[in-house]
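INFO batch 0412 | record 1 of 1 | parsing
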Amino acid sequence: MNKIKGKGGLGRGLDAIFDTESAKFAEAAAGVDRMTEIAVSLIAPNPKQPRSTFDEEALQELADSIRTLGVIQPITVRREADDRYVIISGERRWRASQLAGLETIPVYIREADDQTLHEMALVENIQRQDLNAMEIAISLSRLMEECAITQDAVAARVGKKRSTVANYLRLLALPPEVQAALKEDLISMGHAKAIGAAPEKSRVAMLRKVIKRGLSVRQTEELARKLAEGRPEREVLADDELPDNYTRLVEQCSRIFGDDIKIKKGRNGGGKITIGFSSDEDIAYFLAKLEEK
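INFO prediction complete | emitting tokens
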């Protein structure tokens, strides 16, 4: 399947949490740039950190880098009453520093109450580059529910449009099978969004066809459109697996006419082949390719 993974963290970074529209976060940002070195042993992870697993191989690679170059980007911490510190962002760097045998680590010290600390941890998690769409959706939902803020506020925190946040949150309404396929990278967010536009009762069957046939997002949207128009599910989602010789014919034709080739076997032994094109230039290109033969 030509899957567009669409991975990558959201927004402008953790500093987006200190939006000037919110006095609470502006006040919490006081003393933000106080950087110092702190003993690694005096620092502890945030117990409410959404991230619970770390890739051990990648962590070891980071530790090897830290042994050579040191910690290039300081972690961010909050000072506790007992002169110890809790991590706001950078737990992976802290863990790698432990593996590298460092005694101290550079840190930024921020002032933050428990609510702000929890919100910062959730936003920092959303900013990670290795999250899939379902993980982002779950983190956004947690940010709304656990910090009692609106979609608009969430969008401001992560630096994205409200419509983008809404699209992620809609994924949580999809059947578990679709969510699992998205989380396992069997489909893209575009596929999931298209499946979500189909009638609810047809979504799982539609997912099976998309995966089995390796359909593109555009083809998936077309299936959803037909189903939404009331076309019978048995017709739209019929198993149209073709014999091997039909598939080979499509492959041969695609070398000349591109990927927009459709072949349909008729009920009485016949059938038809459809060649798609978008302009007169395409026709000229097809002719030139045929003449080469």
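INFO post-check: The beta strands are 34-39, 43-44, 75-79, 85-89, 104-109, 261-265, 271-275.
INFO record closed
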